Amino acid sequence: MTPPSTPAPRPRRPLPARPRWPRPRAPRPEDFRAPGHAPQVAARLGLWLGVAVAVCFGTGLASHLAQHPPAGFGWPTRPVQLYRVTQGLHVLSGVAAVPLLLAKLWAVYPRLFARPPRWRGRGRGGAGAGPASRLGPLLGHAAERASILALLAAVFFELVTGLFNVAQSYPWRFFFPAAHYAVAWLAVGALLAHVGVKLPVTRAALRTGYGAPAFVAERRAVLRTAVGAAGAAVLATAGVTVPGLRWLSPLAWRGADPPAGVPVNRTAAAAGVAVPPDWRLTVTHPGGSRSFSLAELAALPQRSERLPIACVEGWSATATWTGVPVRALLAAAGAPAGRPVRVRSLEGDGLYASSVLPAAHARDPRTLLALGLAGAPLTPDHGYPCRIIAPSRPGVLQTKWVTRLEVLP
């Protein structure tokens, strides 16, 4: 029997040659030719962003001085809208800075791919050059990168934490006011360093207009878009502090609470406040003390004032408050005039359970120990049985649920 024949092996087809992809390389500044990346655009965006940051820093510093005045400094009581204006500008300038910062980053990010200058030693164009002349470009490049890194980190920290503060959300463990204040100085220092490094380039870009005529329209369009976005962001939020813009502000984080028209940040339940049935207000001073029941306070001469209450989160509202002028109350208790007054609340362990009313505010006739709001007695959430309302004063220092006034030496 004949065995079956073995089939011959098929010839193998040659494998197709692998395509040779170009080696990846880091982008170069010349790869970005869009009109929005021009130095003329970046310079103008940087100028507007610098104005927004300067306003935000200046008004933030004013807020810090109003809340934590150093020795010898007194926050003024007039005009009564002063703190409302400064804190409103602080928050709104921070809101405007967000789109301006993003537009500025988009305009300049190709420069971040620029490699540092090479060391120009002997035999490579630097023969006879001293160490200082060879190190100069490297040090300048390093200073620019360091200023950019510090500036971006600080500004992003300020804007992001500020927006969280506006929303009353604190997903961190550090104390927001102290950290926000400290990093603000870091941001300003980094900004000044960056301006110093880039000043020659910025001045040259501003002097040359918009550059090539073919790109003038496109570059102006980029700037209009950035400014329009900043304006839209401001209008969408400005109603929290500008009553006339309330209808234009769908993103306002605080609205009016009818009928009083004053929002509430911290309720009595959240503060753990329970007013005892035998509540009395105690006024102490170096010469003695006196206590008042709520009925006795209501029997004293009353005064109504239309005053704003402005929160550090940027919202503010004006309302009519009725109560006893603090200086008249101190006089009725036999306390000396012209001295600061410590105000203590029924809220035992809160960060703002007590505040110090400066002497200028204590003797101002418009500073009230308020018993009523908008023609009605105070509600527990608005500070019943009484609260402090003073002109041109941060809302966190308008202490609610007052139980004791201490005239300081």
From TrEMBL:
Q: Where are the transmembrane segments?
A: 45-67, 87-109, 148-166, 178-197
Region spans: Disordered: 1-36
User: Which CDD domains does the entry link to?
Assistant: SO_family_Moco
Q: Which UniProt keywords apply?
A: Membrane, Transmembrane, Transmembrane helix
Q: What is this protein called?
A: Molybdopterin-dependent oxidoreductase
Compositional bias per record (Basic residues), positions renumbered to this chain? 10-26
Query: What is a single Pfam family found in this protein's UniProt entry?
Result: Oxidored_molyb
Q: Does the keyword Lyase apply?
A: no
Q: Which InterPro entries match?
A: Mopterin_OxRdtase_euk, OxRdtase_Mopterin-bd_dom, OxRdtase_Mopterin-bd_sf
Q: Which domain of life is it from?
A: Bacteria
Q: Which SUPFAM superfamilies match?
A: Oxidoreductase molybdopterin-binding domain
Q: Where in this chain does the record put each Oxidoreductase molybdopterin-binding domain?
A: 276-408
Organism, as annotated: Plantactinospora siamensis
